[in-house]
Amino acid sequence: MADRLGSFDGVHRRNLARVLGLVHLEGPLSRARLTSLTGLNRSTIAALAGELVEIGLVEERAPDPTNRVGRPSPVVAPDVRVVAIAVNPEVDAVTIAAVGLNGRIAARERIEVDHLVTPEETARLTADAIARWRAASLRSARFAGVGLAVPGLVRASDGLVRFAPHLEWREAPIRAFVEEATGLPTAVGNDASLGAIAEHLFGAGRGVDDLVYLNGGASGIGGGLIVHGRAVGGTSGYAGEFGQNRPGIASADDRRAAGGVLEDEVSRTRLLEAVGLRAADEPTLAAAIRSALDGADAATVAAELDRQRRILATALANAVNVLNPSLVILGGFLATLADLDPEALRAAMAAQAMPAAVEDVEVRVAALGEDRLMIGAAEAAFAGLLADPLAAAG
């Protein structure tokens, strides 16, 4: 009898997770649509939706007006009060956001810093932001957890940051610090790997099973891989470190760092210097580059953009040859490099890749823009809730 009850309970929990996962990924869905997508009967969907409403994870609302004959089906949508806190510590700022279960950014702060933040300081800044939001704009919110997108090697088994070179973190137990400071369950992942997941689920890679994602941030270049529809982390979670590869540079005149790796040559810092800025968020840097291309230093800025684009194309060609993706997605300042001359980047990549491997590859910029790391970190924080709504709700 216990086995039968356990089996029933397991099926029930999985069905709750299926319904919650669908409205999380797809947005509001009618009960009729959920019935079609899951293959469950109408009464089961009604009961599951009602239970998710009761535990505060979804809301049911009246359907939109329709001309169809018969009573329209109620709509099930994520409860917007359920949020995850997303955190991205960088060398020039710590960005913190509250991301709803509906995928919307409910609140965001970019805290600029003039020093390298420590793991302990990151935890404190996160707790302070949560306290401010709880007292004001998010006073009615339910906080599901915290997700951190860290630019470094994050051990998948326990979230330990083994090495974040630009932040100078080594063996940093950031998860424990944040959980102690906030009282919330915390997940930690590599920033680019989480960005790849976000773009795969909600952005430019939605519906694409094999893609390579490269993210360009203040701490350099990271990457993420989706193969056969699944995120690939490698044995310990360190896969995707494209920025640490040593690119082949055809012209000696293009090299700026003797023996440097990709992120030494294709560099946000070098772009900031070219346009005369010390620090900037992504939209500000992109706007400054476009403005500079119309100014007195246009030739200098264009030359730096072309140089970085040539080296990036080599790195992309290597990735295409090894992984044979159907899509390459570029985020951060790499998206700006691509957006300014997409045909040049695609042609340079194709010229260096195997013809058969590159013929079906598309290059796109990240569709989620500066939200991609926040949404990816939130997905890590929501993972437990989405896998077992009853356990997380309890």
Automatic annotation (TrEMBL):
* Highest taxon, organism lineage: Bacteria
The UniProt similarity line reads: Belongs to the ROK (NagC/XylR) family.
Q: What is this protein called?
A: ROK family protein
